[in-house]
Amino acid sequence: MTQLKLVALDEQDLEIVSAHVQDAVVKVGDLEYQASTKRFALEMNRFAWETRTGLLRPKYERRRSILHFDRVLSAKLHGMSRDKKDEVLELLAIRFAPAEEPVGTIELTFAGGAAIRLAVECIEARLTDTGAAWQASSRPNHNT
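Above: the chain's sequence. Below: its structure in token form.
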């Protein structure tokens, strides 16, 4: 098993990270913003799209991963409550909206309309698989 490690330093890099975390599930309690270090981190169960095996009966897996953003000036949550630590969110995409470059906003969009908006000095993100992996019970379906 090869563990994924990605770094994003520009908008194109962030699109690649976004593709790798699409359909990750995250508990609200696993979101953490550290204002003193300007870091926002989230632990997730990432759907490993790149690990499909088997032609007739495809097998997929999920992996425990950490995604963190550095140089974060503020973090705002929308459509979720920090009090509901066990609420599960499904990550759909990560996008960057530049202001006066390199400053901008990174938006993490979740199913059901929830979102996290990070005001950032620049794009600086890292995605790292932490080792735990297991077979997924099903493949995410975007047709429903």
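The chain has a mean pLDDT of 90.
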